[in-house]
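SUBJECT: A protein chain and its fold
Encoding: whole-number codes for local backbone shapes
Chain under study, with its fold:
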Amino acid sequence: MPTTVNKIGVIGAGAWGTALAKHLAEKGLEVRLWAHEHDVVDVINSSHENPIFLKDVPLPPGLRATSSLTEAVKSCDGILFAAPSHFIRSLLHQLTPCLSDPIPLICATKGIEENTAKLMTEVMEDELPPSMHRSLMVLSGPSFASEFSAGKPTAVCLAGTDEQLVRWFQRVLMTPVFRVYADTDVIGVQLGGALKNVMALAAGVIDGLDLGLNARAALITRGLAEIIRLGVAMGADPRTFYGLSGIGDLVLTCTGTLSRNHSVGVRLGKGEKLETILAGMQAVAEGVRTSRAALTLARRYQVDMPIIQEINAVLYDDKSCRQAVRDLMERDAKSEKGRT
């Protein structure tokens, strides 16, 4: 564990990565923000803003961006990952040779690797040396980047197996407007953060079809039941899903107008094709990729997840949104507290 934290490398200059880098720089830490796009690096360093991913948010002059992974992590006391989930493995593969000593790593990416259905910490364990595995942590919770960057109160969860290290970085991250809770349930915190994006797609479909608030509330509630079932099967603590990284993030993403995943769902419900929607998006809607991985996990652990099944059918089998809703509503009668 580091005795002090003075310099942090942030990997990923999307909205959330930029917001976290801004937050840490304003706390007085030296921050290096890695971006894949050279134009993003240039504008951050010259104009102290990121108009592509976090519009109208001034960045501290001391926050420096780079397109070099080596430069981003050199002499750092910790690394924070906020890149899209489908880039994590390749970035880690490039990054590992740059790390001479074990270093704490916080993953703020909310997703599941599509082709392997592995959680982000599992991907990290594949690519990083065993000496770093106990230093892995995950950051998740209800946190729209634009509100966080505006200084509006935000609360999240930081989870890791090394409780002392988690407590240390909890203090590093916290401010009067950014409250961080500590946890040890790495599986549950990650599943809640990833699967809420898939449920937000489904909630958006409900809103796009104009089916009303009753239907959306039911979707959120039954979506939570599916997430808990899978989480328990994978070894998570069911109590985690009643916290910030579970129901907190689920409600925000399924109802907030700033949610990219909800917006994609709304457009699907209004009849637009997925390819058309994604072609016009600069940022990533993680739920689109995560939905396939979630279905893989449901089948692997033999967990009934009908909402996950139906959103996959809409996304990838060209099933109509109305038929998907109809099939959910006409399922056999169940006990609400039952296993299915």
